[in-house]
Amino acid sequence: MRVVIAPDKFKGSLSAPDVASRLSAGLQSAVADLETTLIPVADGGEGTLDAAVGSGFTRRTATVTGPTGQPVRADFAVRGREAVIEMAAASGLALLPSVIQGGGPDSGTATTATSLGTGELIRAALDLGCRQIILGVGGSANTDGGAGVLQGLGAVFLDKEGNELPGGGAALARLDRIDFSGLDVRLEDARFTLASDVDNPLLGSSGAAAIFGPQKGATPSDVVALDAALTNFVLVLAGEIGIRAERAAVAPGAGAAGGVGYIAIAALAAARRPGIDVVLEFTELEQRLAGADLVITGEGSLDEQSLLGKTPMGVARAAARAGIPVIAVCGRSTLSPEQLTEAGFKAVHALTDFESNVEKCMAEAGQLLEELGKHIGVHLPTSAERTDTKENVHV
């Protein structure tokens, strides 16, 4: 029997590769002749890099500028002329000093955090000959409209006196012109994909500052100031590159990752696609499902958000197209049996079924997943019980 294990991370506990390997260990301890294929996946945000490496990309590392200006070591992934860049690795909330120390983001970094390191990661990928670049956004610390990305690619932002502006969204209020003379010429041959499920525009009450700024520590007055600064950025950029800068500001996804979605659409001509679709494509999940008897997917919390296109739903749809039963594992589930059935899952197993203490579930997720894998394994049909139809797989 062959089982494909294609989970997302269990946030706060285990990465997707760890989830897959723990489940596999539990399954194989229960079924001697079981073959498992591990395909870690993600929805375009954090974990996308792990999914790429698990699919044959090579992990690379570059030293870039973090969200507060300090150097950080950030990984990205390369396969031939393709690159996968996970923005959080260079410009993520988790890199903020206050977050590292166990607190939350604050007003200071909310207005000054930069996406510069993400632009530098793109440049590192260009240095390696990559010309097809997937930009996975999510978990960003910045609200700079992606200005930092352009700075990392060689653009210079100047005020009325000709002084170069510092990074961060607040500084864009003083932006007067952008010098593109040093912009990396290799961008002309590069093609970008923006992997994002966020459909917010850049500006206004549903824009980057208003909706996501408070999550990054922005106060109400910060939100007003950041939105005004981003508005000025759009006007100045439109003066440099034309009307497409204004059109991009209202495009779905422009507000993603503090506005990095905006600059990806406006300046990099990126095609925006749902993150899970992008990941399932480069992992070649559908092709690798051939001959499988069962698919196992999952994530830390299976809830209403999951139904909106998160990893388990994407995997379930792929399994359905292939006519293969799919089950889900999770830390906890808040969905009703009817919702789970409608989503296509034959069964759902939560760690809270084995351990009611949620904190213990998170701390001991690896061990519990192995137990869960074993539980699933002992309920799989034996070779003598299996027939030609996969519908006889009951788990």
From TrEMBL:
<dbReference type="GO" id="GO:0031388">
    <property type="term" value="P:organic acid phosphorylation"/>
</dbReference>
<dbReference type="InterPro" id="IPR018193">
    <property type="entry name" value="Glyc_kinase_flavodox-like_fold"/>
</dbReference>
<keyword id="KW-0418">Kinase</keyword>
<dbReference type="InterPro" id="IPR004381">
    <property type="entry name" value="Glycerate_kinase"/>
</dbReference>
<protein>
    <submittedName>
        <fullName>Glycerate kinase</fullName>
    </submittedName>
</protein>
<dbReference type="InterPro" id="IPR036129">
    <property type="entry name" value="Glycerate_kinase_sf"/>
</dbReference>
<dbReference type="InterPro" id="IPR018197">
    <property type="entry name" value="Glycerate_kinase_RE-like"/>
</dbReference>
<comment type="similarity">
    <text>Belongs to the glycerate kinase type-1 family.</text>
</comment>
<dbReference type="Pfam" id="PF02595">
    <property type="entry name" value="Gly_kinase"/>
</dbReference>
<keyword id="KW-0808">Transferase</keyword>
<dbReference type="GO" id="GO:0008887">
    <property type="term" value="F:glycerate kinase activity"/>
</dbReference>
